[in-house]
């Protein structure tokens, strides 16, 4: 039996939070029942009812936990949750469930079988199915090309919000990660690969239109891309 932490970073997600967390719980009850799993709602300073809903879910369900940080930052929320609830396998996924939950078992399995220290969802593998605008796809691929060129790597998809890390990565690499925002998981990934930890990419079914009727993206795309480039340069200087 493995202990598995599934972190869901959230910021003002009151409209979709309960239904999506319960979807994850239902999936885990049906597919991960042989493991000790916990779903951690990682709140990074929400100003709506996200915190209240999360605390109600935590009280009602044994496998649901809640953490809160006073400062904004996807990476900070994930880091806080992993540090508070360490596990053999440490996952995170986006709150809108853009990645189909059926791929969660594929994400976890290589680490259980000790075939990898890290597994990541990749939207750009041949077997992957994605529903995304051409502009977002293009900018994401350009970002990936730049990171691969700067660090001499061959990863297909850095920012996909569907990743898992074993405890060794959390113990040895996580404390060195400086970014607490959108570049957080890319930095964790790059630092780990540079130290020869094993990584496996898995195909996924991914949609930008998840919950599109009740949710819109709050991420400024151009601003985020520029931040990625800035952080790529910063990280290259640090670990060259």
Descriptive overview:
By secondary structure, the protein is of the alpha/beta class. Helix content is 42%, strand content 20%. The protein contains 8 helices and 9 strands. It has helices spanning 17-31, 50-60, 74-84, 104-112, 134-151, 167-172, 184-194, 221-239; strands spanning 3-10, 36-44, 64-69, 89-93, 118-122, 129-131, 162-166, 199-203, 205-207. A 7-stranded mixed sheet has the order 3-2-1-4-7-5-8, sandwiched between helices. It has a two-stranded parallel sheet with strand order 6-9. Helix 1 (17-31) links the parallel strand 1 and strand 2. It is globular. Mean pLDDT is 92; it is low at 210-217.
Distance between the termini: 39 Å
Uncertain regions spanning at least 5 consecutive residues: 210-217
Look at the helices and sheets and give the structural class.
alpha/beta
**Mean of residue pLDDT?**
92
Biggest beta sheet summary: 7 strands, mixed
Write the layout of secondary structure elements.
Layout: E1 3-10, H1 17-31, E2 36-44, H2 50-60, E3 64-69, H3 74-84, E4 89-93, H4 104-112, E5 118-122, E6 129-131, H5 134-151, E7 162-166, H6 167-172, H7 184-194, E8 199-203, E9 205-207, H8 221-239
Parallel strand pairs: 1-2, 1-4, 2-3, 5-8, 6-9
Antiparallel strand pairs: 4-7, 5-7
Helix pairs in contact: 5-8
Main traits of this protein?
20% strand; 240 residues; alpha/beta; 7-stranded mixed sheet; 8 helices; two-stranded parallel ribbon; globular
């Amino acid at each position: 039996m493995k202990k598995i932490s599934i972190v869901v970073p959230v910021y003002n997600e009151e409209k979709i939070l309960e239904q999506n967390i319960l979807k994850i719980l239902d999936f885990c009850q049906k597919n991960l029942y042989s493991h000790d799993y916990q779903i951690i709602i990682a709140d990074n300073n929400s100003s709506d009812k996200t915190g209240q809903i999360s605390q109600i879910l935590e009280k009602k369900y044994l496998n649901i936990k809640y953490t809160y940080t006073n400062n904004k930052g996807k990476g900070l929320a994930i880091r806080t949750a992993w540090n508070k609830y360490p596990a053999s396998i440490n996952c995170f996924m986006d709150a809108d469930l853009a990645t189909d939950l059926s791929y969660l078992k594929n994400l976890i399995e290589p680490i259980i079988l000790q075939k990898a220290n890290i597994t990541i969802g990749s939207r750009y593998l041949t077997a992957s199915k994605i529903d995304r605008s051409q502009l977002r796809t293009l900018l994401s691929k350009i970002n990936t090309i730049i990171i691969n060129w700067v660090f001499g790597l061959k990863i297909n998809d850095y920012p996909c919000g569907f990743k898992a890390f074993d405890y060794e990565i959390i113990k040895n690499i996580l404390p060195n990660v400086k970014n607490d925002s959108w570049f957080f998981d890319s930095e964790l990934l790059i630092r780990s690969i540079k130290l020869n930890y094993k990584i496996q990419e898995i195909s996924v079914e991914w949609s930008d239109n998840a919950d599109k009727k009740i949710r819109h993206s709050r991420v400024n795309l151009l601003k985020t891309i520029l931040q990625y480039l800035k952080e790529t340069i910063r990280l290259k200087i640090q670990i060259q």
